[in-house]
Amino acid sequence: MIVRFEEFDNTPLETLTCEARGADSRGAWFTIDPDSALFVPWNADWCVRFYAGDAGGLEVFAQAVKPVRISGELIEFIALDLGVEVEDGAVRLTGEDEFEWNQVAQDYPAELVTRAQRAVNEAFERLMLAEYPFDRSAAEIIGTLRNVQDTSTE
Q: Would 154 be classed as within a structural domain?
């Protein structure tokens, strides 16, 4: 599976080669490498990467995105600069400066600005309340996904 992130003006940002690990009613799980995973919710404008941290800690990067295409072996997103990061136990918002700059430089439509702000707020709130998919440590999530042999997870 290929996951591709682009800027609003179609400038490529990042391409990940992932292995599909399953899906449930809330979204799809992928492993990126032995120490990181990606969760793509079905009905949200954000996705999240989990990283295995020291001592089983939670290290995540949730980012506002606009889904472009999900088909076959390809998922494409427009990355919208805003994100929430947890590293070494500290939670912080990321990308505010880039988001403000790109609103003007790339002429983000008003609806896209609203969606990105709403998405990062939703991800932040779920993270703070330890709601799915933030209800387990990154190490636990990645360990579970490493052991998944079929295409269904809960």
A: no
